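Honest question from a wet-lab person: if I give you the sequences of every part of a complex, can you actually get the arrangement of the whole thing, not just the pieces? Trying it with mine:
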Amino acid sequence: MSAGAARWSREAMAAKVARDIPEGAVVNLGIGMPTLVGAHFGAAREVVLHSENGLVGMGPPAAPGHEDLDLINASRVPVTLLPGGAYFHHADSFAMIRGGHIDYCVLGAFQVSVGGDLANWHTGEPGAIPAVGGAMDLASGARQVYAMMEHLTKAGESKIVESLTYPVTALACVDRIYTDLAVLDVTPRGLRVREVVEGMSIGELRRLTGVPLLKAEASG
Amino acid sequence: MIDKTVPTLEAALAGIADGATVLVGGFGPSGAPNELIDALLAQGARELTIVSNHAGNGDSGLAALLAAGRVRRIVCSFPRHKDSYVFDRLFKAGRIELELVPQGTLAERLRAAGAGVPAFYTPTGYGTALAEGKETRTIDGRPCVLEHALRGDVALVRADRADRWGNLVYRKAARNFGPVMATAARLTIAQVREIVPLGALDPEAIVTPGLYVSRVWQLDAARAAAA
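Yes, you can. This is the full assembly:
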């Protein structure tokens, strides 16, 4: 990336994701960067948060002194339940996920391929202890999967790739990618740029990404 | 008269054999049956297979059971955690076998065992390392993986309240794996905060009907007896 080029902050990325999720949607926010999205829905909107450990209608994190270890989210953070919320067991929780009852899932990613394959559960490094949690269920089960990640690795390599080099979480599951440089839709014809960071040309984004990118369709 | 309540942890854990498959409820600190796990350590069964969402944290509970060398194999979805050092050390030393299962597949394999379904096809995991060697089949255009029911000899669960028939209600998100594990084992042992008289639990709100439960131990029984 050229020196001084703008990048969206993680909070700015989270705000874009929150903006794109409609009122009334049932949403699961994965661990890591996606948890930032929750704070951007705002009190005026009703978006229903699902947590795979068995609650829907999840509210904000518990206030200090009011934590209850029987009421935590999937990242083990003490949370709250909003009026209208419900508890259920794990098999029901994942039936909701596989059964297509979760409208949107926002997941962190190591890599996303041009075809929407997702890698986010394991680096595949020798000796690394694998842990999958609900990543595969969410990626293959949610109706819309939004991936959120930095566009480039620390070494400057694109995390958007022709084909994954990290272990697969689910094939052809990602619908949209939010990075610190762009928002891209996964389409049958390839990746289409919805939005690019201020001051960056599509040509520069293509050069950094290293895969073909379609221009956004002209719209208002 | 049916009375599934037991007065002591020794009675609760009696008869668990070496080599048993033990289902352990809980998601992190939520719903973990810690007193039952400690009692399993004291009971002494060895060569256990543990089925749990995670592989223990810190030095207590599941981690203590692992550290004592009682567990040969663990079936779980998320063994790695910032304080899972006991598991990490055993795994890296090749002293514990790990079967890693996607969390929803873990729950559904338990549910299937309890529901008498020997196996099922699921899209989760297709095309991944966790489906290697498993049968696959495309159903309605969707490639799926065959997953088998996961049955336990014993289930250890934590609930909030019970009656002497073994009916259980849970508290908040501590419910997690408890209800499915209770259905999936031959011997289900529940630790609860309170045992109430038969009929005191609202039948509309009972989550685990007593037929799934073999023994109930009240966490505060010892303290209540001393009072």
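Two things worth pointing out. The CA atoms of residues 188 and 214 of chain B lie 5 Å apart. The helical segments of chain B are 9-13, 34-43, 62-67, 85-92, 103-115, 178-184, 221-226.
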